[in-house]
Amino acid sequence: MKRLITFGFFGAFLTISLFGCNSGNQNTSNSTNLNRAATNSNAALNTSNTAVVVNTNNMETGTMNSNAMSSANSGAAVPTDANGFMMRAAEGGMAEVEAGKMAAAKAQNAEVKQFAQQMTAEHTRANNELKTLASKKTVTLPTALNAEHQAMAQKLTALSGAEFDKEYMRGQVEDHEKTVALFQAQADGGTDAEAKAFAAKLLPNLKMHLEMARKINGKLQ
Predict the structure, then answer these.
(1) Distance of CA 14 to CAs 10, 183, 211, Å?
(2) For residue 111, which of 206, 215, 205, 208 has the smallest C-alpha distance?
(3) Which of 122, 141, 131 is nearest to 198 (CA)?
(4) Could you read off the pLDDT of 133-156 as tens digits, one per residue?
(5) Is the separation of the CB atoms in 86 and 142 below 8 Å?
(6) Under CATH, to which class is 81-220 assigned?
(7) At a CB cut-off of 8 Å and minimum separation 6, what does 89 contact?
(8) Residues whose CB is less than 8 angstroms from the CB of residue 69 and which lie 6 or more positions away in sequence, other chains included
(9) Residue whose C-alpha is closest to residue 91's, from 81, 103, 99, 80
């Protein structure tokens, strides 16, 4: 009888011990799994954060590249040296005369036609004065329209009536804005006294041309 009781206690103790070991193993396994999950989660978070940083850097790089491209495509700076000024002024003046002659013949609107005639006459005089100055400074001026103004001339040639009037006046506003900026820069910071005086002399008239062009262009829209 005592042996049976002893054996019973021993069996119960063995069962409890085995249960405790299994429970401990399960806890250890669960703890390991939790640690692994946490590690994987942190790794995923770190990877996600890294991706965000990389994307942000790429976005910043893209912005810088876009800005660089915008700067590259914005056109050459307005020259203040005498040679650069006279070359640019000659290109613009020649284009004004050619466009003015075309508009004087093709314009439908009477105000546009009158403006074109005025531009032809006044820019012809200015061009002649510029040629005299350039000859004195031994600067060879261009004798043909540049690519930009050739394209504009071709575009105007293909238009007629109200469409021609609108496009001509739109171009006049744009061209005179550039011309005023060119002459203003020379008048303010030119490096040659005679070129600077020439720019200052013509500047008020060019500003008047710009205001006239804006006014007429506004009526046509």
Answers:
(1) 6, 106, 107
(2) 215
(3) 131
(4) 999 999 999 999 999 999 999 999
(5) no
(6) mainly alpha
(7) 130, 179, 182, 183, 199
(8) none
(9) 99
* Residue 182 CB partners (closer than 8 Å, separation 6+): 78, 79, 85, 88, 89, 92, 199
Give the residue carrying structure tokens 């002893």: 6
Nearest partner of 171 among 118, 75, 98, 108, judged by Cα: 98
Q: Tell which residue, 192, 204, 121, 176, has the closest CA to residue 168.
A: 176
Q: 203 in helix, strand or coil? A: helix
Cβ–Cβ under 8 Å, residues 94 and 78: no
pLDDT band of residue 76 (cuts 50, 70, 90) is low
Distance of alpha carbon 106 from alpha carbon 157, whole angstroms: 9
Using DSSP's 3-state secondary structure scheme, residue 192 falls into coil
Q: Where are the domains of the chain?
A: 1-75, 81-220
Tell me the whole-structure pTM to 2 decimals. 0.66
Token pair 């790429």 is found at 58
Tokens at 50, concatenated: 């890294």
> What percent of the chain clears pLDDT 70, i.e. is strictly above it?
66
Q: Could you count the other beta carbons within 10 Å of the beta carbon of residue 20?
A: 10
- Alpha-carbon distance 87 to 109, whole Å? 33
